[in-house]
Amino acid sequence: MMKYIIGISLLVLIALSIYIIGPKKEVAAGGVHEVVVTEVLQANNYTYLEVKENKQKVWVAVPSMIAAVGDKYYYTGGMVMENFESKDLGRVFDAILFLEQVYQSPPTSHAAAADPSSTEHTGAVQDPKMNFEIDPLEDGISISELYSNKEKYEGKIVKVRGAVTKFNPDIMSLNWIHIQDGTHFEGKYDLTITSDQTVEAGNIVIVEGKVILDKDFGYGYFYEVLMQDAKIIEESNH
Questions:
Q1: Which of 35, 61, 130, 221 has a beta carbon 3.0–4.6 Å from 51's, enabling a disulfide?
Q2: Structure pTM?
Q3: 130 in a domain, yes or no?
Q4: Residue 225 lies inside a defined structural domain of this protein
């Protein structure tokens, strides 16, 4: 009987010790997770993503980044916080996985160490390069020309024609447009644009706006080249 009581007591002590340790616990790497974003919440320093892997939904938190419902990302590892309160959002999450970064393609162990992906200089992350080229405007420039001579165009109003690869509305009170025209310079082929107008992904647009270099919005939103306050001159189906 005494052995039985001692055994029960030990089990209770173990259970209490697990509870008292607190809500933070490391998660084993467990390979690469492929997830699709189902909800996005922006806070001061973090972006909270509800993501779906197979049929299971979980919340993850990453340093501030631009993301939209339907985006696909990959991640490894992470740390779970249970009953985590976000004061910025005024919300308590039953459980949330904090990640250092997410990837747009499956990371290798080498890439995971070398690629900052979406944690630092978030705006530099590019979508896959499109495999066709769009003729530039007679009174405009190509994306490769813009990147190769960016100092020449700094502070100037330029026109660019390209295909919309991504449209993210109402982030930091701005609409964010990504376009490509098939050209590139030193691996840079994606132009990020801010505007108060809306466009549809997949359409061809002519945009006109001011070229800003090394724009830092804070919270990880840094852009080597940005077209700011752009106007959509023309939009057509691809």
A1: 35
A2: 0.56
A3: no
A4: yes
